[in-house]
C-alpha cells in the first residue's frame, strides 16, 4: 500500500512536473475555445470546398460541427462559473475533458477524408487508446522500478522513449503518405501523434486533482486563535 502511494506520488516524470503543477486560469478555457473555433473554420471550409465534397463524409462533418459548437458553449459556461471559487473543482473538468475530446475530433476529421470514415475512425480510436494504455503501463513499470530502487533517474531517462517513438512513427507515416500520395498513411500517422498527446494529457491530470484535495487543517493556527480569544474574554471580564 505504501509503495502504491509512492508510485502515485512519483508517477509524473521530472520533464512534466512543472506543467503538472500549473493551475487552471481563464486562459485555459479561452485556449480551448480558440482551438475549437479554428476546428470549426476547417470544418466549414471542408463543407464548402468543391474539391473536398467528393471525398468528404458530409454526415460525419455535420456532426463534428455540432459537437464543436457544443464544446465551445460548454467552455463559455465554464469560463463564467470559474470565477466562483466553490465551483472551480467541478468547472475545471470541462477544459480537461474537452481537450481530450478535441483529439478525437481531429481524428474524426482525418477519418472523414478516408474511403471508410466510420470504420477507420473506430479503428483509429481503438489504436490510439491501445497505444495510450501501453504508454501509461510503460511509465508505471518505470515508476515501480524507480520506487523500488529509490533511483528516479530510471523513470526520467526512459519516460520519453515510447513517446518519442510514437511521434517519430507518426511523422514517418505522414512523409510516406506524401511520397506515395495515399492519405491512409497520413491518417495512421495522425493516430500515432494523437496517442502521444493522450499520454501527455495523462501527465496533466494532477492539475485537476489538486482542486479536489482537501487542505490540511492548521491545528497550530486554531490553538493560537483560541488563545487570543481567551485573552480577549479575560480582558472583557476585567
UniProtKB/TrEMBL annotation:
The keyword Transmembrane helix applies. This is Uncharacterized protein. It comes from Enterococcus faecalis TX4248. The chain crosses the membrane at residues 28-49, 64-83, 90-110, 130-147, 159-180, 186-205. Keywords: Membrane, Transmembrane, Transmembrane helix. It comes from the Bacteria.
